[in-house]
């Protein structure tokens, strides 16, 4: 990583040669080196809009960041030596390149050519070591004198080199390998981190021995002996403050007995030592300071930590060192996207409404300060109409994005998994054979921007209907409707074109009064059966405790398909909502169901065979209980026929106008409400019949 303290821009290099530039919210740029080699180091030309990158293929590149699309101005390739370290002093035109052979080459940044000045390893160490010192692991200039260069070799030798006289002023030797070096801003002391977990502090005019040796995580023996060795301290930074004790930030150095412990960043300030555990291994870190001048008090205020799968920024100004909440839309560690929907020309008040409820979703434990990487300007998009993208994720979360500008911005996040009980252990796995993992993953969704109704289908054969509200509510019991959907082909596999069709039994029929046999919050629709080891059991268990729902989308109804005679329910593949009629229709490989989410009632439940007319060929296709996820598609196609709207509302076997035979009112409600809903959704045409 590299950071421009004036422009407030962060640069991150990757193993694939990519270069990502981060600024304030919405400011992000992606570049790529043609070679695809890993980026090993980055150096900003501070406040000049330029960046130097060093790659693993021993090439260095100068990027121009002042133009709209960053581009490489100059490149230089080393053929005989491997690049191990680069250093560009503040406001200097000389770039120092350390090599694996221990030599240092100097490049003119303006012309991007070698100057001819080479510091040879044997002249740098002379008689301080009888063997090769190893690769150059550190180069830096004295904060008070740019003409003095500090060179660190892997073997433990550090050399203070005078560029004008072309000779070493002092040599410092320690019996442990060096990983990094950091200066005190006054230029009189520097700190080295070593492979045995120690930190050595040296006075530049006292090269005989270190002024101080500490092992931050080592156990100090009572007899005064040397502490037990620890893991290597891979990097250390030493930053001073005008008002108090300096900060020393380091990665690594933990005791060897901390087996299995996650990667840690250690912050030492005065007499306090804080160990901050990270979710992933640490790749690099940088301490952000108020002043860009190395010869002044740095005043550190944050630490940027690059992890293998994340990027976090730690606030050094608050107790406990909380992290900043990232403003970037696509966090590296987010759950994979499983479905995506795009909406254009949405109502003008919709984005402000989603942003209003989303802005209240600030998570606890974050810094109260603004994101410190604030450089760049966020341009405005060319669209004159609002655009929204909704993504469903493998962990059951849903995100609403503002796509009207140049960059995606998160408006609101919804977690559907809150509706269900969480398994507390391996023995409490969900009752599903549909998916091996991610039981809450979003399969498909349907959203009505005008009414703001949201309907979500998950991979565990469940549908959740949400209603938008600006008020916080506490739901004592989540309303649940269980649907028994099965496909029966015991008598015929294909309709007989030449003779009279034997009518099949309807997939299910609603009980006369589900409220009498089920708890108030759980409605059941379907025929009870005692066959098979599992029957009438949903894949997920809806939570029984009260659910506190924040402003935004709140649960209206949960619909779950249940096991039938030992067979798990099929995944839902199609979904549609008519919010004006309060109806939701969904289907899978077994059939189709229509639910009135206002009355919490199942109106229609048809098997695939019932959707065919006698003149249609139909062959039962084998279906697997582990049906792969499919994108949202059309629920049905139309086929020429003469059936009118009223006939289509009848069950093939009962002849009644509704499969819900509980009372006349529900029959009439379905005829008047359901038929209108079908036409409005585009699922049925008045002159055509359904085709599966």
UniProtKB/TrEMBL annotation:
Low complexity bias (residue ranges): 500-520
Residue ranges, compositional bias (Polar residues): 521-531, 651-661
Domain of life of the native organism: Eukaryota
Record's protein name: Syntaxin-binding 5-like protein
Keyword RNA-binding annotated: no
Record GO biological process: exocytosis; Golgi to plasma membrane transport
UniProt keyword annotation of Repeat present: yes
WD repeats: 171-205
Keyword terms of this UniProt record: Exocytosis, Repeat, WD repeat
GO cellular component, one term: SNARE complex
Domain Lethal giant larvae homologue: 215-322
Family, similarity comment: Belongs to the WD repeat L(2)GL family.
A Pfam family: WD40
GO molecular function, one term: myosin II binding
Residue numbers spanned by region Disordered: 492-539, 616-666
SUPFAM superfamilies: WD40 repeat-like
Cross-referenced InterPro entries: Lethal2_giant (IPR000664), LLGL2 (IPR013577), WD40/YVTN_repeat-like_dom_sf (IPR015943), WD40_repeat_dom_sf (IPR036322), WD40_rpt (IPR001680)
């Amino acid at each position: 990583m590299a950071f421009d303290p004036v422009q407030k821009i962060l640069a991150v290099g990757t193993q694939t040669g990519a270069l990502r530039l981060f600024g304030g919210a919405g400011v992000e740029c992606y570049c790529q080196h043609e070679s695809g080699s890993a980026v090993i180091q980055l150096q900003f030309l501070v406040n000049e809009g330029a960046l130097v990158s060093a790659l693993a293929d021993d090439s260095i590149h100068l990027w121009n960041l002042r133009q709209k699309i960053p581009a490489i101005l100059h490149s230089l390739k080393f053929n005989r030596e491997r690049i191990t370290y680069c250093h560009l002093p503040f406001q200097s035109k000389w770039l120092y390149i350390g090599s694996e052979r221990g030599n240092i080459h100097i490049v003119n940044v303006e012309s991007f050519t070698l100057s001819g000045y080479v510091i040879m390893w044997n002249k740098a160490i002379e008689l301080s070591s009888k063997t090769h010192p190893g690769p150059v692991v550190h180069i830096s200039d004295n904060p008070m004198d740019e003409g003095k260069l500090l060179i660190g070799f892997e073997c433990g030798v550090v050399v203070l080199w005078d560029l004008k006289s072309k000779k070493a002023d002092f040599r410092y030797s320690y019996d442990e390998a060096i990983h990094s070096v950091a200066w005190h801003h006054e230029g009189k002391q520097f700190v080295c981190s070593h492979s045995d977990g120690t930190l050595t502090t040296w006075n530049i005019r006292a090269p005989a021995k270190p002024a101080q040796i500490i092992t931050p995580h080592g156990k100090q023996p009572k007899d005064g002996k040397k502490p037990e060795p620890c893991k290597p301290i891979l990097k250390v930074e030493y930053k001073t403050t005008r008002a108090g004790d300096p900060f020393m930030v380091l990665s690594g150095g933990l005791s060897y007995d901390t087996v299995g412990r996650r990667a840690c960043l250690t912050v030492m300030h005065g007499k306090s030592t804080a160990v901050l555990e990270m979710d992933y291994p640490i790749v690099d870190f940088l301490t952000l300071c108020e002043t860009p001048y190395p010869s002044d008090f740095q005043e550190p205020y944050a630490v940027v930590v690059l992890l293998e799968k994340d990027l976090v920024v730690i606030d050094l100004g608050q107790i406990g060192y909380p992290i900043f909440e990232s403003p970037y839309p696509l966090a590296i560690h987010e759950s994979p996207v499983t479905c995506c929907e795009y909406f254009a020309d949405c109502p003008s008040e919709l984005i402000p409404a989603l942003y209003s409820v989303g802005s209240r979703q600030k998570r606890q434990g974050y810094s109260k300060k603004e994101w410190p990487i604030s450089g760049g300007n966020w341009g405005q998009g060319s669209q004159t109409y609002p655009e929204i993208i909704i993504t469903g994720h493998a962990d059951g979360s849903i995100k609403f994005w503002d796509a009207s500008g140049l960059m995606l911005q998160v408006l609101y996040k919804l977690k559907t998994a809150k509706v269900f009980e969480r398994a507390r252990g391996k023995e409490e796995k969900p009752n599903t054979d549909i998916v091996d993992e991610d039981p809450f993953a979003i399969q498909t969704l349907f959203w009505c921007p005008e009414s703001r109704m949201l309907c979500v289908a998950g991979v565990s054969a469940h549908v959740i209907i949400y209603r938008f509200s600006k008020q916080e509510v506490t739901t004592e019991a989540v309303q649940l409707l269980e649907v028994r959907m099965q496909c029966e082909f015991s008598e015929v596999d294909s309709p007989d074109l030449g003779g009279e069709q034997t009518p099949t039994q309807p997939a299910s029929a609603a009980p006369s009064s589900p409220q009498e046999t089920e708890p108030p919050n759980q409605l059941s629709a379907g025929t009870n059966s005692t066959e098979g080891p599992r029957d009438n059991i949903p894949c997920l268990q809806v939570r029984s405790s009260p659910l506190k729902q924040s402003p935004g989308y709140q649960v209206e109804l949960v619909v779950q398909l249940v096991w039938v005679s030992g067979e798990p329910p099929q995944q839902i593949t199609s979904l549609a909502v008519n919010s004006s009629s309060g109806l939701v229709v969904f289907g899978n490989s077994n059939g189709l169901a229509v639910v009135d989410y206002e009355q919490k009632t199942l109106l229609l439940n048809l098997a695939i065979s019932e959707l065919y007319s006698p003149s249609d060929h139909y062959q039962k296709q084998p279906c697997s209980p582990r049906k792969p996820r499919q994108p949202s598609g059309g629920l049905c196609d139309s086929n020429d026929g003469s059936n009118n709207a009223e006939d289509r509302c009848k069950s093939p076997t009962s002849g009644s106008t509704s499969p819900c035979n509980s009372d006349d009112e529900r029959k009439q409600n379905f005829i008047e409400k359901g038929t209108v809903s079908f036409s409005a959704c585009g699922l049925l045409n008045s002159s055509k019949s359904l085709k599966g």
